Amino acid sequence: MDMIVTPTGRLNGEIQALSSKNYTTRYLLVSALAEGTSTILYPAHSEDGEAMRRCIRDLGAIVEEDDEKIVITGFGRHPRPTKELDVGNAGAVLRFIMSVAALLPEVHFVNSYPASLGKRPHDDLITALESMGVRIEHQNGRLPMTIRGGQPRGGKIQVSGSVSSQFLSSLLFLTPLLDEDSEIEVLHDLKSKVVVGQTLEVLEQAGIVIEASEDLMHFRVPGRQKYKAQTYTVQGDYPGSAAILAAAAVTESDVVVHRLKEDSKQGERAVVDVLKAMNVPLTHENGIVHIRGNGKLTAGEFDGDEFTDGVLAMVAAAVFADGISRFYNVENLRYKECDRITDYLTELRKAGARVDEKRDEIIVHGRPEGVEGGVEIDAHYDHRVIMALTIVGLRSARPIRIKDAHHVAKSYPIYFDHLKSLGAQVEWTD
Prior knowledge:
This protein has helices spanning 21-32, 47-58, 91-101, 123-131, 166-174, 193-205, 238-249, 270-277, 311-318, 342-351, 383-394, 415-421; strands at residues 2-6, 10-16, 37-41, 62-65, 69-73, 84-85, 107-109, 135-139, 142-148, 155-161, 182-190, 211-212, 218-221, 231-233, 252-258, 282-285, 288-291, 297-298, 301-303, 321-322, 324-328, 354-358, 361-365, 371-373, 376-378, 396-398, 400-403, 425-429.
């Protein structure tokens, strides 16, 4: 389905931040890797979460849920043999489950989204798993893929972090279960270090001991550990909330978002500081962000690697800032559901934004007067692109139509409901 976004000058109201997708998927996984029963309170409902639940069920976990919690009886280090897994369009779920699948003799991963996840490379994780004695058949590093494992070996393991931190996180979930102690060395650079911090936080909560160097480039992981069955409470989601906060920043607004912890380890917490630096009037106290937007923003320069999943929303805000904004250190955006630099900027230009790109930068020439709009836009099946383009539509002179906007459900199924409750003029259309 498509979404028509009509220019909206004012947003008002309060919402509860969506629960964190990243924490929910990690809690689902560590609960499955535990022996015994775990409870996850306030889980996020998203296509990624659905994909993880489907996969751990197929691997032998018992999953029961209602509106407020998920109860999981795990399989420990002995997943149930299964011939085939379908992760949908969820890259993180694929990468995490690849390591779990290495505990089994043979698992085939299907390619359900050849135009999106099917294009994304996983070579760095494949190379690391192969060094541990796992055999993998793949299509030039991409899906479909067959993993033949059974007895992966610990020991000295190297993994590149230059494309995605998810490869490292995947190995951190697996190695505590192996018979041998492991040393993991990260090669080259490590993208999205803050997300590795979330993985380490969840592993610690699950009773796993890992020694990490301060720069997160070296890890010592004792083997023969067991995940403990626990109760987990999911915190509010900064990446999704970034789009709501940006929408409030570019309009006349009085918007309150609850459940956003000031001391969260989510890197996207930095979007609050980005908006402050752009002179958006806001406060952040007691887990509540309150924006009294006036639509006036000042350009700035920002290290996007600190808030990877919030960059597109902040770029959308910068479209209306006074001056030239620069988001640097963002090359890993090219390896997401789409190329979130070239593909996204192509669509922004259609709407009338003035934007340029380098290999690892997005440059925005702000237009405080707004953009023309009046176009149909292709969001490339990417939930983050859909949310960000909506922000631009709120300040366009004429409505924009976002194709296939229902893919927002990958991370934020009620995004448009939340915007509508704040007064945004958004309508579904076939």
